[in-house]
Structure formats: C-alpha cells, structure tokens
Design goal:
This protein has 313 residues and is of the alpha+beta class. It contains 11 helices and 14 strands. It is elongated.
Length: 313
C-alpha cells in the first residue's frame, strides 16, 4: 500500500515513531523521513544525561534509523561513535523489526566543564578525535558487514555524509533535529536523500546534477520546527518540500523502544566467568547486581542463584 499524501488517519501521533520511505519522482532520488517521539523519549529518559549528551544520543538514534531502514537485513544494525572527548561512546542500534535502544558513555567532570562553556556546540567539541562505525549483524552463521570513518565534521550527520562520500561513493544529504519540548518530552526528526551511483533516468548528466542540487536546496529549506512538529504529518512535510517534482511515499516502518537484555542472557555471561570472579562482585546486600547499560534494568543474583547457575555449566 502507498499512503496518500496528507493522510492523517489515526490522529496527529499516527506518524510518530516511524520511518517513511519516499521517492522524488522527477529524479528517482530515494529517501527516508524519520520522526521519533515516545520511543526516543523512553530511551533518553532512562538516563540522567546532561542535555547536550542526550541530544547527541538522540541524533545518533535518528541516524541509525535513517541508515538501517535503507538496508535489507534480518538481524541488528548498530551505529557507534568512539572519541577522546567528554563523550567517549555513543551506541544506537535497531533490529530489523524496528526495536530501538541507545547508550552514551561520558565523563561527568569533563562534560560539566564543556557544558559550562557552551550548552550546545559542535559534535567534535564533545567527542574529540575518534571514529564512527556501523555494523550489520545477521547472526552467527553470516558474515558481519562493517563500515568505519574518522569523526570529521561539526555534527554526527556531517560525519556520516563524509563516510558516504569517501567509502561508498554515494551522495547523501542528511538533516536531523533533536530537542526537548516545553512539556519535557524528547523528539527528533531526520531526513535523508541518497543518489546511488550510475544513471537513474534517461536524462543527461547535467540534468542529473541539476536534479541533485535542486533536491539539496529544497532539503536545506526544512526547519527544525518542521522536523520536530507533533502536528505536522510526515506526508504533509514531504509534500511541502517536493510537490513540484512529485513525491511518492511507501509503507512506513514502525519503531519502538525495546531492549534485548534478559535474565537468561545475563546468566549466560556470568556463567562464562570464573566463579571466584563473580563472587568478588557481591555487594553489601549479599547480592550480585548486573545493570543493563541500555535500559538500566537491574538483574540480581543471590548465592542460591549463582550456585544453580554454576551447577548447570
């Protein structure tokens, strides 16, 4: 089914937490429009991140969705940034079913110093020198695919565009906005347009270049307010931007915040460690606590739990 432009069935939240693929008919350029609302807020609200750190992770999650929904895979897509700055790690991943999770590792002291100087700033100020990598993992019996690029640019979106140009020879335009609403709810919006190598229509090379430049100019006109608006339907936003060239939208991909951790998985990790090492993790309450970095769920194991765990190994 191809949704009609302007269709708002289901209320103004019907287009939240989804990725909407589209095609600009005149030039055959492909893209995705992502709007994250409750799913993004659930991920970010689980942690007491400083606002700039939460904003960076929100951008990371939005970029992960933009990239993953352009691929055909059955498994997990992970986007990760590692740097030498106050924010040393950003991780966002999405399953082929649309389950999202994310995590940020940061130095509170360094982050406070940078935040005091400027609450918002270029990504390089927070991440420092490092790299951006993505991985497609489809299971133990398949080969993992990974791409990696140096952190270059003032934004994570700019770093990703650099990767496409340098490693994939694919032109990509990306716009991302992340903010907390007056009601205290995190939202994000992301728009990506890609031009794959090779001829796409019967037009001349110069026509192709004109189409690409026009699409980038139109894309640059979108405002953060439009990307983040809870009352502007995704289809209406695309129509505003590209109606003169014709825009076709396809079935949206639903998204939800959902972690993949479980007591069973944590038990397997503990069972793989030496028994004495696990016993050394026992806290004052006599329990071993293991907290998931993504969703903050606390898994507890008492002496009897650990005894059963090792009896079964």
């Amino acid at each position: 089914m191809v949704p009609e432009l302007g269709d708002r069935s289901g209320g103004t939240a019907a287009f939240d937490d989804q990725a909407l693929p589209f095609q600009i008919e005149a030039s055959r350029l492909r893209g995705r429009l992502v709007r994250l609302g409750p799913a993004l807020h659930e991920v970010l609200d689980r942690h007491n991140y400083p606002p700039p750190v939460a904003t960076l992770l929100g951008e990371m999650l939005t970029l992960a969705v933009l990239m993953a929904t352009a691929l055909k895979f059955d498994g997990f897509f992970t986007l990760q940034a590692r740097g030498s700055g106050p924010v040393s790690l950003l991780v966002a991943d999405i399953t082929s079913e649309g389950a999202l999770r994310g995590y940020a590792g940061f130095d509170p002291d360094k982050s406070a110093m940078v935040s005091a100087a400027a609450n918002e700033g270029p990504a390089g100020q927070w991440l420092g020198q490092g790299h951006l990598a993505f991985t497609v993992d489809q299971g133990e019996h398949t080969q993992r695919y990974q791409g990696i690029v140096e952190l270059v640019g003032d934004t994570l979106s700019g770093c990703l565009q650099h990767y496409f140009r340098q490693s994939e020879q694919i032109d990509a335009g990306i716009q991302v906005a992340v903010a907390k609403s007056a009601e205290g709810k995190w939202r994000s919006g992301g728009l990506m347009i890609q031009r794959l190598p090779g001829p796409q229509t019967e037009l001349t090379p110069s026509d192709h270049e004109d189409d690409w430049r026009r699409a980038m100019v139109l894309m640059a006109s979108v405002t953060d307010a439009e990307l983040l608006s809870p009352s502007l339907a995704s289809t209406d936003l695309l129509y505003r931007l590209f109606h003169e060239d014709g825009v076709r939208v396809f079935d949206p991909k639903p998204l939800a915040a959902r972690c993949r951790c479980s007591a069973e998985k944590v038990s397997k990790v503990l069972a793989a460690l030496p028994e004495a090492e696990v016993a050394g993790l026992t806290e004052d309450d006599g329990l071993v606590h293991v907290a998931c970095e993504f969703c903050t769920t606390d898994y507890t194991f008492g002496p009897e739990d650990l005894a059963r765990l090792y009896a079964n190994t």
